[in-house]
Amino acid sequence: MRRRHFLTLSAATLGGVLVYSLDRKASLLSAQRKPVRIPLRFLTETEALIIAAAASRIFPSDDAGPGAREAGVAVFIDRQLAGSYGRDRFRYTLPPFEDAPSEFGYQGSATPRQIYREGLKGLEGFHLLSPTAQDQALRKTRSKACSVIRFTGETPVWSAGSL
To answer: How many domains does the chain have?
Structure first.
């Protein structure tokens, strides 16, 4: 990352920089109002837009504070999926995969990366919908409550169940 890019990201994150001049007067230098592009590490741009739109419907901005978009939820999820969590580095993922009570947690071999990618296929075009249609799509997705039960080859096999 170049120094100029780092400084731009830092200033945009802080919302500005407080500078004291030689005559001890404080001035606030604010960042430019154009959007700052943060490189994605795992998600495609479309997948990140879908996640940002869904998170914004679940945690919108209001008078109480910032919402999911301002908090950078899509970037956080992208970084988690790009790292060891997304690769399931610290979870036992070898067979046998058996049906187990939900108290035991997820018992399949699909990684969080694979689960997210498969789940995002069902929300294709979500970020282009109106807010009302987005709410309906999220309710529909929630009512399905699908979970991966086993993984064969490159395709997770989905069935009705609880997360």
So the answer is: 2
